[in-house]
Every structure is written in structure tokens, then in C-alpha cells.
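Objective 1b: paired records.
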Amino acid sequence: MTKTEMAPATKAGLGILSIVQVAFAFLAFWDLAHRDRDEVRGPKAAWIPAILVNWIGPASYFLFGIRR
């Protein structure tokens, strides 16, 4: 099935999921940029490519990358 064969509701749902995914990654990058080094597990530079991995990267950062 190609993109043009999708139902309008499917296209809208995928569009919304895409926006949420980008927002999730943006929030992770924003948080990373505003945290001190001692509040982040591992080097901050290592989290940049990790956050780029769809859904898993930002979730991993929020779950495992922040010292609590």
C-alpha cells in the first residue's frame, strides 16, 4: 500500500504521531541542553545521536539519562 492509497484518517493519524514524535525529541534535546553535566548520566554529546532514534532515544534519555 502506498501513501496515496491510505485512507484520510490513516494519513491524519500518522501526521499526528509524527508531530508527537518530533515534539518528544525536541523536549529531550531542550532538556539535555539546559541540564548541567553532573545531572546527566554519561557524556552529554553521546545523548545527541541517541535522542535521534525514533521514540526509543527520547524515552531512553528521560528514563535512564537523567540523574535523579
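Objective 1b, second protein:
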Amino acid sequence: MEYSHSDTDLIKQPIGYWSWAAYKAVIARTRAALAGIGTTQPQWWALAQVANADTVKTRDEVSRLLRNYLDTGPEAMESEIDTIIAQGWITEDAEGRLGITAEGRAFYDKAAALQDELWAERHAGISDEEYLTTLKVLQRFIHNTGGRAWHH
């Protein structure tokens, strides 16, 4: 791969720009791929929470966990959960407990395979050690600037 600048010049580049550019590229690619199979990223998040739950989760639990991801917000997350219920991928009982349907499981498997492909695409030529270092450096930037971030 050809980099934008020499190592000497890269060390002077702003992290804010490059982290933003990486965010935009990854999110745009992920969202376009998910749209290609008929879903959104927040719908995928919610479906994955229900599909992978060790114990049954309620709508409130799923919504509270996901609403701050990429600044989605509570109203949008609730709407996305409504959509996957309307799609027939999950059900909600009177107590707000969510369950995955057979159709939802089949769609989840399809979307999970796509996510695996996207992971491999993003990580091409990047070792686990480089990836780990990158995440630790980004978390350090967040810490050093007084920010807060946490992912389940």
C-alpha cells in the first residue's frame, strides 16, 4: 500500500482527521453492504443482540445498550427495533421480551456472514498485533482528551 505521506510527515498528521476519515470509510462501507441485503446497521445491532443473547433480553435492555452507538439516539433505536419486529425477524411479548423468529435467524445468519466478510476486508494486511495496538492508541487518545467510550 502507498501511504499519503512519508513516515516523517505522517507523524505530524492530525489524529482527528485520520480517525474521522477512517470512521467515515468504515461506516459507509458497512452501511452500504447491509443496505444491499435489506437492513440498516442499527437493525443489525438489535438483531444480533437478540440472536446472540444467553438470556432473553427486553426491548428496553437492547435499546439502552445500543442507543449511544454512533450517536443513534433513543428514538431512532426504538424505531429500528419496531422495524425488525415488523419485518418478522423478532417478536416482542407483553412484558417487552424479545425473541428471534426462524425468519430472523435465517436473516441473522446471512447478515453475520456478510459482517464476517466485511471484517476480513477491513483487516486485510493488518496483523492482530497491529489492530490491538491501534485500538489501544485510539483509546489512549480518548482518555487523554477527557472523552469517554465503551463498547460491549
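Residues 31 and 39 are 9 Å apart (CA to CA). The longest helix spans residues 15-36.
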